[in-house]
Fold these 3 entries.
Entry 1:
Amino acid sequence: MIRQVDVRGVRFQVADEGTGSAILFVHGFPLNHTMWSAQIVEFAKTHRVIAPDLRGFGGTDGALYSVSMEQFADDLADLLDALSIRSPVTFCGLSMGGYIGWQFVQKYRHRVSHLIVCDSKAAADSSDAATNRLKMADIVLRDGPEPVAWAMMPKLFAKCSSDHCPAAIESVRRMVMATNPIAIAAAHRGMAVRPDVTGILPTIQTPTLIVCGEHDTISPPAEMESIASAIPRSRYVVVPNAGHMAPMEQPEFVNRVIREFVL
Ligand code: MLT
């Protein structure tokens, strides 16, 4: 069921399916909850699946000039309250969703039973990367999402998987093109100033699963493996024949890995 949930003046669009302990799926940039379609179908069989569109993205309003990863995390905590979910959840984020996950697990530790970070990073942006994001924020506000689609699409999918998942690629392209430019600019500005969380990784006591596409060039396997090795109770899994969008490229493999972790 797709619900509209009002939280502190923002109307969130949220997929809310199934019953049981909750898994919160947090999408990457600049996408929406439908990137988790295969996970929503699978995990709604056994869990309550909550997959929101983040502030400004998809069907959610409330876009701001800049949105920090902490603000996105606060939104999610408020959203769980609005949905009366008080028990700890499994938090599963991809890329920007992972940046938000680091903030969520620091600030709302008691609300997370398991943390899953797919194709993401712990380090902050280099100063060049941050500068490029600020430029891209201005470009998107002027020209719309197309320049972001041009910049990102070639990096998201592994060559080997793109042959057999043209529908996934087309759906991501459509998601990017349909995203509100104000939300894209705001998230770029927020990601440009996100903190380096490498130092907090050894303090995370929550059981954590790190998932990385074998051919991810945005958050490469070596970098993700070192994140996993810094977190005490972590498991690290490489997804064969996948790039940055591993849960879309190899949904059955990723679903199996998540299921083994959360059971
Ligand atoms: C994402 O997939 O969310 C982006 O690659 C995050 C980023 O731009 O760093």
Note: The beta strands are 2-7, 10-17, 22-26, 48-52, 89-94, 112-118, 208-213, 234-239.
Entry 2:
Amino acid sequence: MNAEINRQLRVLVVDDKAFVRTMTGRVLQTAGVENVAYAADGKEAIEYIKRANPRVGLVFCDLMMPDMDGVEVVRHVAELDHKPAFVFISGANAALLSTAADMARARGFLVLGAIEKPISIEAVRAMLAKLDGVRPTRAAPASLSLTPADLQRGLDANQIVLHYQPKISLSTRSIEGFECLARWQHPDHGLVPPGQFVALAEESGLIKPLSDRVMSLALKQCAAWNKAGLSTKLSINISAHLLVDLGMPDRIAKEAADQGLDPKQIVLEITETGVFRDAADTLDILARLHMKGFALSIDDFGTGYSSMEQLRRVPFAELKIDRAFVNGAGQNQKAKAILQSSAALGHNLGLSVVAEGAETKEDWDLLAGLGVDVVQGYFVAKPMAAESVLAWCEKWTSGTAAKL
Ligand code: C2E
Ligand code: CA
Ligand code: CA
């Protein structure tokens, strides 16, 4: 722990009970924090955070308070121009603490965690240590403020490239396929991830040219791998915005045929949130893609709406469980329950169940225990450039797989 940082850090303790404030303050001082301030309710806390100079760096906030509860405090502090980090202190149950922490993160706060009462010196030290760890990288990855005109230029200059991430069978460890993930090779910003430009494309009407580019690159790559002796499936993300384009199934089918590909090699991943914008046209498109032989996958399963209805109406072949329920599920009862139920649901419907976002051996083992069919995630490999794929496959089949 960095004692110097703790000496300079101003911590505000917010709790309606005087003895809890005093206790927390004492524990903080023992942990080396010299600058502790107190507020007996939310209103006082907000006033203090507004005025304090030097700024409040960290707030220890009680969740259950009579006038304004901790959730409301976070909501009001979010409106200020200064955003301190938060630790929640509470006798509340773990599920509520975790909801509160997610809420604060969604409002843009750094949340170090929650401490149950009575507060121990070890717990406080652990929180302060986390603050040391994150401080240098505190800023969120800068949003690049790219414009539609930039993206148009990027498309014109062929700067969209695809990276490929393997999908592995849990029972046989064989390579089931790859998911292609778009990146923008930007001359000034380097390799820009899709989080920075897919939504921009969707909002600005550029999603069609972007998707056309992705589709064409992906199909060409798949054909090239076939020639090189790697006959594997390729998964392609389909934006919900394309599910209104009735000509799309014929175009993709023609392009696949032009490349000499069997549509059975192609999996189209569709996020469940996107499926029913216009039920008639969407079902028209999905039914025809299915008839042409493409496999349909319901992507990010568990994060969208009305997914049951979609599972009933759309001929999906694969259910892809979102990584929110996969990574670390072993330590999170709720994530584990959702994971388990989603896998069972997929199997009961006769679908292949894929889990994305497996980062550790523990994730892998849990998924194996649940009978999940296919795994994708950093534990196996991060997305890689097309040029690296053949060598990776070679390495995987000749040794890595056996070590799992
Ligand atoms: P997605 O379809 O859920 O893709 C999986 C994302 O999870 C990828 O992020 C991948 O790099 C990441 N990932 C894989 N394994 C792990 C892991 O073990 N841990 C963690 N933390 N992350 C992992 P990426 O490449 O940044 O893509 C983000 C999203 O952008 C994709 O989410 C997809 O919705 C969208 N996207 C990517 N390429 C395309 C595209 O060509 N077209 C469309 N419409 N959307 C795309
Ligand atoms: Ca996907
Ligand atoms: Ca996902």
Note: Residues 300, 322-323, 356 surround calcium ion (ligand 3) (CB under 6 Å).
Entry 3:
Amino acid sequence: MILVTGGAGFIGANFVLDWLAGSDEPVVNLDKLTYAGNLHNLDGLKGDARHIFVQGDIGDSALVERLLAEHRPRAIVNFAAESHVDRSIHGPEDFIHTNVVGTFRLLEAARHYWSALPATEKEAFRFLHVSTDEVYGTLAPAAPAFTEDHRVEPNSPYSASKAASDHLVRAWHHTYGLPVLTTNCSNNYGPLHFPEKLIPLMIVNALAGKGLPVYGDGMQIRDWLYVRDHCSAIRRVLEAGRLGETYNVGGWNEKPNIDIVKTICALLDELRPRADGEKYASQVIYVKDRPGHDRRYAIDARKIERELGWKPAETFDTGIRKTVQWYLDNPDWVANVQSGAYRDWVAKQYEAA
Ligand code: NAD
Ligand code: TYD
């Protein structure tokens, strides 16, 4: 079996669902259920004995050690994190607790468990750390995409905390020999994405007749990957990645934010036209930019393709259409996540918009 952390969040839940759709190997899912964790993401696994959910913190060493001793996983896949840049600007401390201290404690628990394993299990054990392209900082317009050798130059509290966790993972391999793998992926999108992030926020705001808040000039570039392609990359790295290596994951889909917003509007115009005949793009509003906003991210995904033969299955056009359709088909999921805490966040972040 494998231990997944953060498996009630956006990517983690997609990963657990895909894993159990393709394999009978059980998953222990350790998630603190912060505002971003949602057990409804895992409704499809209700009553499925292959999925064992445990509410708890990766920083709770006693709990993690107990879970490892009890379930004896062959791998840990660490998704658990505070993940939203804007929240990290308002309140960085949770990011340090979970992303830095939490990863440290998880590594220590993994090390103690792994070092006591019998030789064959010890050999086969893996600790896969899920990270982000944001650790590399920002790119000039014509600069080549991030390779794994790019300098680590994080600019936000979020990316700095993720970079710190990547360094810890690396050090636990070099110093203690822990068999680690790290993936640094570009921006994900798809089903179950919490609507504080650009793509789901634009879809739910558009449908609710609200403003579509574009930061600054909307010309910041992100490199988008459909979430299930990220999950397939993680499975592939877990299966065949070289120990101690970092693999960049991306789909060669660089787009300025304003293009993303316009694409979503056009899809909604087609799939769920506004009752008044107006275009959704009329809801776009330009708002104050994010402090320290990185201008451009782009992933060079040649290493994972060359070494492990991984390629994304979706293009941006197919992935974004599936995503918009998923939000149209799942109004109950959307209503459920738009709780009081969500409304408080939206009021705080967009009050001046
Ligand atoms: P998310 O915020 O949707 O989910 C994070 C999950 O972790 C939630 O279920 C939350 O309850 C859980 N969690 C938070 N703190 C915890 C703790 N201390 N102990 C246990 N569980 C805890 O995030 P996501 O978008 O699914 O991202 C998952 C991982 O992938 C993160 O490590 C993130 O840095 C990385 N990543 C995300 C993206 C992206 O575009 N979303 C891109 C690249 C990498
Ligand atoms: P986000 O989804 O927060 O991901 P990240 O900051 O980790 O890349 O934001 C993606 C891009 O969209 C980023 O350049 C910020 C921008 N953005 C907006 O313009 N408006 C918004 O309301 C949000 C949430 C993001």
Note: DSSP finds 13 helices and twelve strands in the chain.
